[in-house]
What we know:
Elements: H1 3-24, E1 26-27, H2 31-52, E2 59-62, E3 65-68, H3 69-87, E4 90-91
Antiparallel strand pairs: 1-4, 2-3
Helix pairs in contact: 1-2, 1-3, 2-3
Amino acid sequence: xxxxxxxxxxxxxxxxxxxxxxxxxxxxxxxxxxxxxxxxxxxxxxxxxxxxxxxxxxxxxxxxxxxxxxxxxxxxxxxxxxxxxxxxxxxxxx
Length: 94
């Protein structure tokens, strides 16, 4: 993977994590927290989709690496809710 491809994946993960946190209403961390939530959310979302037999939607391929954006946002939302409730993350006003 090239440096540019890696940076693009980081940006996509950050956006997915930020969207997940915004939907959940909890902020787990700053930019690094959003990136982490985005990557973990992608993993969790794809795993859940596989367990439920659901297809992947809107997958971006960067340098040969697929990134399932929709499942990343869904997984990031679930992770943000769990982390926010368990760890007492900052609640965002809607």
